[in-house]
């Protein structure tokens, strides 16, 4: 057996096992020659990264093995055998004409393989077996002995910290009934036409136009970004929505309600931009740089030019300017309220299908759902709210219910079906209320579902919606975790520069630097994480891995022991982890196992 330490690969001779009694001499000769074939697996051990295990297998045959053997073919089957003898056939290397190249005059195939990751596969073996086949008589075959070419999975890349923590719309039913309803509309740069850019939010305005109330006071506030052309875009945006609402009331309202509509604009100046910058996820140093520029004594053009040259401008252009191109519609009117006791009883009857869903309004249904801890009841209540009102909070909260049900479900297919329903409802909530919070929930649901490309796209969209700093930090941290799962470590580090300085950020920065083999940088961030969350077992375990890679036995002993003291499950993990395979016989490892 040859072991290439540099490439972490195995070169293995394969012994011959004859399984067909009448196999001809040529088949025997091919299989005998296969003893000198070389199999190289990269990486080795295999590495679990996100939802997949991807590796490259290179097979090189002896120089004369395929020469003058036109009536015979040879292939190598690849199998992964997980603990408990669960086997997956991953494919084969087929040495047919046109499928292989010559390296140093020897037939060679290099091929990528992949299989889905699951925790039970951590302990397993990658196996290969060669087969020589007589093309004239397919039942005449000969097999090599099945050989192990890699053992177990390295799961270090999965040690990122994720949150995906989104919950129900905050309960503000009582105050909401007395206060205004607010609906946001966003516009493309330099545009104000409603028909092109408002999409699924317009039906929500239609519902307010149809509401049967005595009076409505509508206020439309327009805004524009500092980099947009002209000074009247904000007013044009407000006027476009006001005109739209007037036309819908004239067409859809049969109650004869009195409607008062006014328009106004928010200021578009450097102070407004600076306020949004200070609430953004930009690092403190970049916020200070922008403040120095915008509060300086130069002309507006000089400030604009300096801003474009700043380190933060790409973030400002991508994530802040879009949030300033909006018009907000505020609808102010009162509604009657029932007591909590009455609401709960009616909600129970709706859940039991002994009362019609329309005995409660959407806001009443959603408020009543907060009064029951049972997910099945909540689901029925939010489903009723969706059917009767078609408003975004009902869709959003129904999506949250399905997510919570999915988190409690251990069956893979059932869990995926629940997440599909969560995504469906969160999508509808996003159409009606395109905010950072709603789209963060949608991105998280896609993330939990394993649809990584879609999740990444919506995380980015959520950031562009803008929001409070704490929310933006959460979005950036989970976006970075996803980028790490996808192997996009440079992009993850970039996202983490906007995610604050909390435990999750430092843990994921530590892992990013660890996987990029910057061990000193990884150590610094893991130690920062421990300052924020003392005695965290995952941080100690990660530092033990750093020590193992740096061949620092003292570091392995100290941090592995502390991890096990806090969480005994890390003892079994360390025994099975390829990161510590070289330490199993050493004193430092034995001492670490002592609690």
Automatic annotation (TrEMBL):
Residues 1-23 form the signal peptide. It comes from Pontibacter lucknowensis. This is TPR repeat-containing protein. TPR repeats lie at residues 436-469, 503-536. SUPFAM superfamilies: TPR-like. It holds the Pfam family TPR_11. Keywords: Signal, TPR repeat. The keyword Transport does not apply. It comes from the Bacteria. The keyword Signal applies. SMART domains: TPR. InterPro entries: TPR-like_helical_dom_sf, TPR_rpt.
């Amino acid at each position: 057996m040859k072991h290439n330490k540099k490439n972490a690969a195995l070169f293995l001779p394969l012994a011959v096992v004859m399984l067909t009694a009448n196999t001809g001499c040529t088949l025997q000769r091919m299989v005998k020659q296969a003893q000198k074939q070389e199999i190289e697996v990269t990486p080795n051990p295999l590495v679990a990264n996100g939802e997949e295990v991807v590796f490259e297998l290179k097979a090189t045959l002896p120089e004369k093995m395929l020469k003058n053997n036109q009536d015979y073919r040879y292939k190598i089957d690849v199998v992964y055998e997980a603990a408990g003898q669960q086997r997956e056939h991953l494919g084969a290397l087929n040495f047919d004409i046109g499928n292989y190249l010559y390296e140093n005059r020897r037939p060679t195939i290099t091929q990528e393989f992949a299989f889905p990751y699951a925790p039970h596969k951590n302990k397993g073996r990658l196996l290969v077996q060669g087969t020589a086949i007589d093309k004239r008589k397919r039942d005449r075959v000969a097999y090599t002995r099945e050989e192990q070419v890699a053992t177990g999975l390295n799961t270090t890349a999965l040690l990122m910290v994720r949150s995906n923590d989104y919950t129900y719309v905050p309960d503000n039913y009582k105050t909401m009934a007395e206060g205004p309803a607010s609906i946001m509309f966003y516009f493309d740069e330099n545009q104000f036409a409603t028909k092109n850019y408002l999409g699924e939010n317009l039906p929500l305005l239609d519902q307010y136009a149809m509401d049967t109330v005595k009076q409505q006071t509508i206020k439309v506030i327009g805004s524009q970004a500092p980099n947009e052309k002209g000074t009247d875009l904000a007013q044009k945006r407000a006027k476009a929505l006001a005109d739209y609402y007037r036309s819908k009331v004239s067409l859809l309202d049969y109650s004869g309600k009195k409607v008062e509509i006014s328009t106004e604009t928010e200021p578009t100046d450097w102070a407004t931009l600076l306020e949004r910058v200070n609430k953004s996820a930009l690092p403190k140093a970049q916020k200070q740089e922008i403040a120095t520029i915008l509060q300086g004594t130069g002309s507006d053009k000089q400030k604009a030019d300096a801003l474009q040259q700043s380190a933060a401008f790409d973030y400002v252009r991508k994530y802040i300017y879009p949030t300033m191109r909006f018009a907000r519609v505020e609808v102010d009117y009162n509604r009657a309220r029932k007591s909590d006791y009455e609401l709960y009883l009616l909600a129970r009857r709706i859940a039991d299908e002994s009362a019609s869903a329309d005995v409660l309004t959407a806001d009443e249904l959603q408020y009543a759902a907060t009064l029951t801890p049972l997910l099945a009841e909540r689901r029925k209540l939010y489903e009723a709210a969706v059917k009767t009102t078609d408003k975004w909070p009902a869709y959003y909260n129904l999506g949250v219910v399905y997510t919570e049900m999915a988190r409690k479900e251990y069956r893979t297919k059932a869990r995926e079906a629940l997440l599909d329903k969560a995504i469906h409802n969160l999508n509808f909530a996003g159409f009606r209320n395109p905010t950072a919070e709603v789209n963060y929930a949608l991105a998280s649901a896609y993330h939990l579902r394993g649809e990584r490309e879609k999740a990444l796209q919506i995380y980015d969209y959520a950031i562009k919606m803008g929001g409070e700093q704490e929310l933006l930090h959460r979005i950036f941290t989970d976006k970075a975790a996803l980028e790490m799962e996808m192997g996009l470590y440079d992009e993850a580090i970039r996202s983490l520069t906007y995610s604050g300085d909390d435990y999750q950020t430092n843990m994921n920065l530590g892992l990013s630097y660890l996987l990029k083999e910057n061990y000193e940088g990884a150590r610094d961030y893991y130690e920062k994480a421990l300052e924020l969350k003392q005695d965290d077992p995952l941080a100690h375990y990660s530092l033990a891995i750093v020590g193992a890679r740096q061949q620092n036995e003292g570091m392995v002993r100290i941090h592995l022991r502390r991890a096990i003291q806090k969480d005994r499950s890390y003892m079994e993990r360390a025994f099975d982890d390829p990161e510590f395979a070289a330490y199993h016989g050493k004193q430092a490892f034995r001492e670490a196992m002592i609690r």
